[in-house]
Amino acid sequence: MASGGVELPRKEANVLKGHEGPVLAVRFNGDGNYCLSCGKDRTLRLWNPHRGIHIKTYKSHGREIRDVHVTSDNAKLCSCGGDRQIFYWDVSTGRVIRKFRGHDSEVSPHAAVYASPGTGSCHFGH
C-alpha cells in the first residue's frame, strides 16, 4: 500500500453517524482536530472525529452540498452545491454571512473553492 511516507490506520477509529443520505465530502481543519462533512441531505456537519462527537449542523442550501472548506483560522467556512450557490458561514454561530449566487449550473467540487481568513471572501475558480 502506497502512503507517501505516512502510515495510514488499518482499522476504523470512529464511525460518524448523522447524515440522512450519502455523504459527498469530508474535510479536516488545518490541525486535524475537527472535520466537516456534507451531503445529499443538504446539511453540513461539524465533528470531533477523534471522540466521535457531532458538534453542530449547518442548514441553508436548497439542494445537495458537494464540498466544504474551512479557513485556516477555523472561524469561517465555504460550501458549494447543487443549488448553484456558494455560502460563506460563521462557524461558531452557524449563520450564513454571505451567499454567492448567479452560477449558470451546479457548483462542482472539482472547481477550487476556498475561504480566505481576514478578507471576508471565498474564492472560486477552475
TrEMBL record:
UniProt cross-references to InterPro entries, sorted A to Z: WD40/YVTN_repeat-like_dom_sf, WD40_repeat_dom_sf, WD40_rpt, WD_repeat_MORG1
Stored Pfam families: WD40
Localization in the cell: Cytoplasm
SUPFAM superfamilies in the record: WD40 repeat-like
Signal sequence coordinates: none
Stretches forming WD repeats: 16-57, 58-99
Keywords tagged on the record: Cytoplasm, WD repeat
Main subcellular localisation: cytoplasm
UniProt KW Ribosomal protein keyword: no
Gene3D superfamilies the record matches: YVTN repeat-like/Quinoprotein amine dehydrogenase
Lineage top rank: taxon: Eukaryota
GO CC annotation terms, alphabetical: catalytic step 2 spliceosome; cytoplasm
UniProt record, GO biological process: mRNA splicing, via spliceosome
PANTHER family: WD REPEAT DOMAIN-CONTAINING PROTEIN 83 (PTHR22842:SF3), WD40 REPEAT PROTEIN (PTHR22842)
Family per similarity comment: Belongs to the WD repeat MORG1 family.
Name this protein carries in UniProt: Uncharacterized protein
Native source species: Ensete ventricosum
